Amino acid sequence: MKKRTSKAVFIDRDGNLIFEKGYISRIRDIRFHKRSVEALKLLKKHGFKIIVVTNQSGVARGYFPESFVAEAHAHIKKELKKKGLAIDAYYYCPHHQKASIVRYKKDCACRKPSQGMVDRAVKRFNIDKKNSFTIGDKLDDVRLGHNGGMKGILVLTGFGRWQRSLMAKESVKPDYIGRDFYDAAAWIIKSGKKQEAK
Ligand SMILES: [Mg+2]
Ligand SMILES: [Zn+2]
User: Fold this and answer.
1) Is 14 among the catalytic positions?
2) Residues with CB under 5 A from ligand 1 (ion)
3) Over the stretch 171-192, which tens digit does the pLDDT of each residue have?
4) Is-contact 150 113, C-beta < 8 A?
5) Interval between CA 7 and ligand 2 midpoint (Å)
6) For residue 57, which phi and psi values (nearest 5 degrees)?
């Protein structure tokens, strides 16, 4: 087997990269968190692949068409390009068990915290999960990391504060709890430096 050589940060979209707006279905509702661009820059500078992994069950629930997800990601791409930045890949799961639209009704292997989306990226970019991280505002983002043998970080933007209040009951322990995406990224870089010093 080929050696896995790249390291990645799997980032949640809504409530982390951009503001949580509850099933975003309009381009004008896409707004970056203030320090998201800085966070992306920092991770890029340190050689991380940056992969968006997002559950978009709004498709299954009939709130917006699947084509909107592509439109939204094209918009994000365009906005980041203006800042000279690019995210390496965008993956989404449009499915849900309780879908109102039949063709999206399934218990999908790519819905976070399952590894479907991560594993597609792992193959494509030759990612070593052991040196990789997840960042998001839900405990499922942390579980996504832990289920894959990665470190999982919870951010307090979006649903983060509410999710933090459920940690004990759901026995999920994030490796770090960050104020926002940038804080999480800075912790990743710092923890990497500590490893090198050992
Ligand atoms: Mg989220
Ligand atoms: Zn899916």
Assistant:
1) yes
2) 12, 14-15, 137
3) 999 999 999 999 999 999 999 8
4) no
5) 24
6) -70, -10
Q: Can you list the domains of the chain with their CATH numbers? A: 8-197 (3.40.50.1000)
Q: Is the pLDDT of residue 1 over 60?
A: no
SS3 string, 26-46, reads CHHHCCECCCHHHHHHHHHHC
| Catalytic-residue membership of 12 | yes
For residue 60, report the distance from its CA to the centre of ligand 2, in Å.
Answer: 10
Cα–Cα nearest to 55, from 135, 124, 110: 110
The Å distance, Cα 119 to ligand 2 centre, comes to 13
Q: What's the N-to-C CA distance of the chain in angstroms?
A: 29
pLDDT class for 2, splitting at 50, 70, 90?
Answer: low
Report the C-alpha gap between 185 and 95 in whole angstroms: 29
| Å from CA of 72 to ligand 2 middle | 18
pLDDT tens readout for residues 86-95: 999 999 999 9
Long-range contacts of 147-150 (CB under 8 A, 24+ apart): 147/113, 147/114, 147/115, 148/115, 148/118, 150/10
Residue tagged 């933007």 (tokens) = 157
pTM of structure: 0.96
- Strand pairing category for 8-11 and 49-55: parallel
Query: Which ligand minimizes its atom distance to the CA of 106?
Result: 2
